[in-house]
């Protein structure tokens, strides 16, 4: 469970409008600095229900007041008398009410001509010369002294020249930020690897760096993050960056020793756990002992491209893990001397050989029979159209990718609102424009409609059907990712007096023809016979060439090859487009879509809505108006 620090922050009296502290200035308890972009804030705070005061940095725009760094972790201020200041040598200090120094930065570098302390938008609190912004010349920076949070741009590692080490350490508990017993650091012995230690003992290791990722930490590949492990004669360090600074993400080492990668979800006002390092028993270092393989399940192997090579290993190999996804294939080659040592233990006697041969024959025979049974079953499944691989052929996007593409679901990117929920415009990192339908908690459509749309449209491909790129399912978040239609929907044009003039008769006939082709494909030409059940102007999208695309398959139904009609007790759809037999008795067939198509044609030709139509001589709708009198 993610650790969320609920803080009692007593800084409501005054907030500095600047991000910089200069010589002669100070910050009293109740005053804060805010970074230039408004991402982070620095000041005095009390964690949890504690009354102790600390100088810390927290997210300015995150409602939970999540602290990412603490200065005086081991030396608290007992009351609200604390003061943070910087002297002429560029040394930061925290003093209590009796002018006693509680904490100081104690920089060992040469002082600057005009030292200042500045809170950056990365969350780094730095001391530098006012006229020198080169990070290599910083006199001091908080990123060199991590707390329990590993932020983008931070480095954990070892400087071989100075012998100094940067590592994250857990809090003792949620109310005491003093260093706990767990650390997150780079182990430089042998091949460098990132580990979590409990005291001096390794609790978890993320594996060695293979040029792409850490081999023991099979996190989902995500273009939003770029990880790097640098090793040279001067230093070794591990770091990461994010491609979109509007997305708040962090690695948190909580008091129980868990490493969690979290992302802030503005919609739920909560930190979403994207990945956890020790998610099962196999993540515990040496859990199965030497030369054992710890398997989380029996899923088939998963192979990634690249990131391969050779490692020389001396001593016991004690923590091989089989992952259900991610990871790498491992091939072990023993030295000839080791093989000779094994052979020297003696040869098997003839009786043991006979037993082994007999067992081998039995296993081989059983394997052959099993293979034949599986082959026959596969043929039967293929013939009945129930092959498992056809269940879902759709990419799955992670939440962070969609959040970045839509600028964290900015209201400026909302394209519209439907029964499913809001629709956002987004741009993937490779430049592909997308439309994201996000299921609203108050939506008239629910999980069943979501599953229905994913299952059906993933199997359909036609130039007059909207293309589904993938989906995103994370806890209560459910989203569908479509191709972006720059000309919005049909109702945007035909029911507007000004925009309808842009549709001449050639374009209108082109749209009618495209819709007809799409319906024909659904009813006769696709692998599945599909009844859409919600054909209407707002569900006809238009691309940049005004080609119509049928969308929204949440209410669609799949028919068998010989099935012609079905009945439902739950009448759903849009009144004005429903066929009479469906609206009255719940009966639907291909005639349902044909009826809806006819209404659409009338609306395209007349520019009038069927249900909203009125005439001074009668009270009929559009259908009644055009129907010839008996």
UniProtKB/TrEMBL annotation:
<keyword id="KW-0472">Membrane</keyword>
<keyword id="KW-0067">ATP-binding</keyword>
<dbReference type="GO" id="GO:0005524">
    <property type="term" value="F:ATP binding"/>
</dbReference>
<dbReference type="Pfam" id="PF01453">
    <property type="entry name" value="B_lectin"/>
</dbReference>
<keyword id="KW-0732">Signal</keyword>
<keyword id="KW-0325">Glycoprotein</keyword>
<feature type="domain" description="Bulb-type lectin">
    <location>
        <begin position="18"/>
        <end position="140"/>
    </location>
</feature>
<protein>
    <recommendedName>
        <fullName>non-specific serine/threonine protein kinase</fullName>
        <ecNumber>2.7.11.1</ecNumber>
    </recommendedName>
</protein>
<feature type="signal peptide">
    <location>
        <begin position="1"/>
        <end position="17"/>
    </location>
</feature>
<dbReference type="InterPro" id="IPR000719">
    <property type="entry name" value="Prot_kinase_dom"/>
</dbReference>
<keyword id="KW-0723">Serine/threonine-protein kinase</keyword>
<dbReference type="Pfam" id="PF00954">
    <property type="entry name" value="S_locus_glycop"/>
</dbReference>
<feature type="transmembrane region" description="Helical">
    <location>
        <begin position="354"/>
        <end position="376"/>
    </location>
</feature>
<keyword id="KW-1015">Disulfide bond</keyword>
<dbReference type="InterPro" id="IPR001245">
    <property type="entry name" value="Ser-Thr/Tyr_kinase_cat_dom"/>
</dbReference>
<dbReference type="InterPro" id="IPR036426">
    <property type="entry name" value="Bulb-type_lectin_dom_sf"/>
</dbReference>
<keyword id="KW-0808">Transferase</keyword>
<dbReference type="InterPro" id="IPR011009">
    <property type="entry name" value="Kinase-like_dom_sf"/>
</dbReference>
<dbReference type="InterPro" id="IPR008271">
    <property type="entry name" value="Ser/Thr_kinase_AS"/>
</dbReference>
<dbReference type="Pfam" id="PF07714">
    <property type="entry name" value="PK_Tyr_Ser-Thr"/>
</dbReference>
<dbReference type="InterPro" id="IPR001480">
    <property type="entry name" value="Bulb-type_lectin_dom"/>
</dbReference>
<dbReference type="GO" id="GO:0048544">
    <property type="term" value="P:recognition of pollen"/>
</dbReference>
<dbReference type="InterPro" id="IPR000858">
    <property type="entry name" value="S_locus_glycoprot_dom"/>
</dbReference>
<keyword id="KW-0812">Transmembrane</keyword>
<keyword id="KW-0418">Kinase</keyword>
<feature type="domain" description="Protein kinase">
    <location>
        <begin position="409"/>
        <end position="630"/>
    </location>
</feature>
<keyword id="KW-0547">Nucleotide-binding</keyword>
<keyword id="KW-1133">Transmembrane helix</keyword>
<dbReference type="GO" id="GO:0004674">
    <property type="term" value="F:protein serine/threonine kinase activity"/>
</dbReference>
